[in-house]
Structures are given as structure tokens and as C-alpha cells.
Design brief:
alpha/beta; Enolase-like, domain 1; 7-stranded parallel sheet; 14 helices; globular; binds 2-succinylbenzoate; binds magnesium ion
């Protein structure tokens, strides 16, 4: 597959409601949409670097720079048979996983389309439907949270994750448990605690949570092992895992017993698959995280989550949970039984709504291969 043209679009989409976490409040989401033209098809990917360096050091600006000045020049004009060939052309670039993942996603989609295969099939997925949950930001009060949860459960979501931060934690967990004794419930701290909070986590241990996501340092593996040692509840790492190597270290040290996979955080679908396969071997469950993606990124997430060891519901919610209008057709919906259908058409399996995409584009650049 000859890579002829690559386009980047900086997009900005307004969230239906502000998303509050220990990292701050997000009102709109800025990402980069990557499109690759090759052999008469167009492949689409989403780079999930955000406007701010609060979840990860990468931002839209750093990813734009790395894509434009290093990654795109490496792959433009290549004639590839597999995505791995493209990846090997930029192994010199260290880090910048989100920039790499955005480009890789577009290449996977294009390659799948040239082979007339769904992305799910291309990646080795085996499910027709995936189980999905919803990630709820920090609420002002317990009644506000209960109302939100009730609405999402009515829509079918199978699992609830709530964001926590010091002072906004145990009272929310306790209230939800009282109201819903058997709810699949988990919490995400986004690195806002320290080992000094060990007693708090021991109290949380009583609430039968599915997992506690990234309680300690955003790059830490060592201290999470200390915390895991004194907890029954599995710790799940998100921010700390950027590669298969990080995964191996975390599992060998018993720093966590569950892994959150986000292709953006680990450099793409290829590394995600390696992590998924390694975790299968080690009996470590994985689940698919989310970065408030548009339908383009979401389509890739759904395809990846169709692999067999994604055994816990993902942070993959309906388009309308995030945005008034998505940029793909059809939009993603949640079935009454809390599942989402895995698209079966070639590639990402949904059409990009070019008019809607144009409306949210704030900057655009194209690179054409010159023969
Ligand atoms: O920590 O999982 C996270 C969104 C942005 C950055 C980090 C995280 C999240 C979410 C949202 O929790 C998950 C979703 O996309 O629904
Ligand atoms: Mg997280």
C-alpha cells in the first residue's frame, strides 16, 4: 500500500457537559484527526493528545510538531504491506506515544480498507459486541452523582466508574454502594493520592470495587506495589503504562492486577496487541480506557476491545454521552443490554461526516508525496 497523502486536522469539540477530574475541568476536547490516502482509500485515525499536558506530557501542539516534522516525513511515499513496516521507519523517535498512535490508527484503517476487512478482524478481534461502561466526572454532591448514575444505568451501561480526588472519594463510593449493592463499580484517581492515603484505600477495600485506577504517581510502578500489597481490591494502572515493558514490570512487581489499555498511551494498536497478548498469558484481565474520543477514535477503540482478553467493560460510551453531534455516521450507540456493536464494514466501519468534521476543524495541513 503506497502512502500518497497525509492530512492533519486540529479539531475542537464541545463536550455536552464539563468533565471534572483531579486534573481539572474540561469543557471541550481538542485532538488531531489524521487521514492517510493510499490506493484509492482513505484511512482515519485520532491522536488523543489534549490541549493541556495534565493527563500526559503530550499536547495537541507537541503531537502536531512530532507528526509534521518526524513521523509523516518518515512514512510518506512508503509502499508497505504491514503497519509494522511503517512503525519501523520511525523507531528513532522516542516517546510521543499519542502522536505515533494517531498516525498508526490511520494506517491500520487504510490497510484494512485495501484488504476489505473490518479493523476488528484485522486486529484479531473475536467479538461482535463489546460490554461498555461510563466514566463519570467528579460531581458537586452525592445527590447529583446518584441522579447521573441512575440515568446511565437506565440507558443500559453495565459498569460505572467515578473519578475521585482527595476529599471527593469515600462519601461518593459509600452512597453508591448503599443505593446499588451489586453495581459493577470502580474508581479512577488520576494520580491524586500518595502512600500517605493508604488508610483511605483500606476503607475503600470494604466497598467491593472492581478496581482502583491509578491512585499514585503518574509514572510510578514502585509505590503502587507497596499499596497493592495491603489491599484486596485490584489496582489497575493507566497513566504509568506506556509499553509492553512497563506492563511486564508492573505485573512482575505486583504493582497492579488489572491493566487499562489505551492505544494512544502506548503508541498504537500494535503495542496494545502485545500488551493484550502478554496479559492473556499472565492471567491479567485488561479493559479498554477512553480519552473522550470523537467517533473516529472511538471506532478504533471498539475494534481493539473486540479482542478476547478485554474481559471488563470499557470506557467506551455512546457518542451522545460526549458530544451533541459526532463526526461519524452512524454515531455510536449503546444497546439496552449495555453492549455496543462492533462495526463489520471495512476498516473502522463508520463513515466520516466531512461536513461535521469541517465545522470542528480549527487548523489543517496536508503532506503530499512528490514523485
Ligand atoms: O483517566 O481514564 C482516564 C478521559 C481523559 C483523560 C483520562 C481519562 C479519561 C476518562 C474518560 O476517564 C473515559 C472516556 O473516554 O469515556
Ligand atoms: Mg484513568
Amino acid at each position: 500500500m503506497k502512502i500518497e497523502r497525509i492530512e492533519l486536522r486540529h479539531i475542537k469539540m464541545e463536550l455536552v457537559s464539563p468533565f471534572v477530574t483531579s486534573m481539572g475541568t474540561e469543557y471541550d476536547e481538542e485532538h488531531i484527526i489524521v487521514s492517510v490516502d493510499a490506493e484509492g482509500v482513505t484511512g482515519w485515525g485520532e491522536c488523543v493528545a489534549e490541549g493541556t499536558p495534565f493527563y500526559s506530557y503530550e499536547t495537541v501542539q507537541t503531537a502536531w510538531h512530532i507528526l509534521n516534522d518526524f513521523l509523516i516525513p518518515s512514512v510518506l511515499g512508503l509502499d508497505i504491506e504491514s503497519v509494522d513496516e511503517a512503525i519501523s521507519s520511525y523507531t528513532k523517535v522516542r516517546g510521543h506515544m499519542m502522536a505515533k498512535a494517531g498516525l498508526e490508527a490511520a494506517l491500520w484503517d487504510a490497510l484494512a480498507k485495501t484488504k476489505n476487512l473490518s479493523l476488528s478482524k484485522m486486529l484479531g478481534g473475536s467479538r461482535e459486541k463489546i460490554e461498555v461502561g461510563v466514566s463519570i466526572g467528579i460531581q458537586n454532591s452525592v445527590p447529583d452523582l446518584l441522579k447521573k448514575v441512575e440515568n446511565y444505568l437506565d440507558e443500559g451501561y453495565k459498569r460505572i466508574k467515578i473519578k475521585i480526588s482527595p476529599g471527593f472519594d469515600i462519601q461518593f463510593v459509600e452512597a453508591l454502594r448503599l443505593e446499588y449493592p451489586s453495581l459493577l463499580l470502580q474508581v479512577d484517581a488520576n494520580s491524586s493520592y500518595t502512600l500517605g492515603h493508604t488508610e483511605l484505600f483500606r476503607k475503600m477495600d470494604e466497598f467491593n470495587l472492581l478496581l482502583i485506577e491509578q491512585p499514585l504517581g503518574y509514572d510510578d510502578i514502585f509505590e503502587h506495589a507497596k499499596l497493592q500489597k495491603v489491599l484486596k481490591t485490584p489496582i489497575c494502572l493507566d497513566e504509568s503504562i506506556h509499553s509492553l515493558d512497563d506492563t511486564r514490570a508492573a505485573i512482575e512487581l505486583d504493582s497492579c492486577r488489572i491493566i487499562n489499555i489505551k492505544p494512544g498511551r502506548v503508541g498504537g494498536f500494535s503495542e496494545s496487541k502485545l500488551i493484550h497478548d502478554y496479559c492473556t498469558l499472565k492471567n491479567i484481565p485488561v479493559w479498554h480506557g477512553g480519552m473522550l474520543e470523537s467517533g473516529i477514535g472511538r471506532a478504533g477503540n471498539v475494534a481493539l476491545a473486540s479482542l478476547s482478553n478485554f474481559v471488563l467493560p470499557g470506557d467506551i460510551s455512546a457518542s451522545k454521552r460526549y458530544y451533541r453531534e459526532d463526526i461519524v455516521e452512524p454515531e455510536f450507540v449503546v444497546n439496552k443490554d449495555g453492549t455496543m456493536d462492533v462495526p463489520t464494514k471495512p476498516g473502522i466501519g463508520v463513515e466520516v461526516n466531512l461536513k461535521a468534521l469541517e465545522k470542528v476543524t480549527v487548523k489543517r495541513i496536508e503532506h503530499k508525496f512528490r514523485h
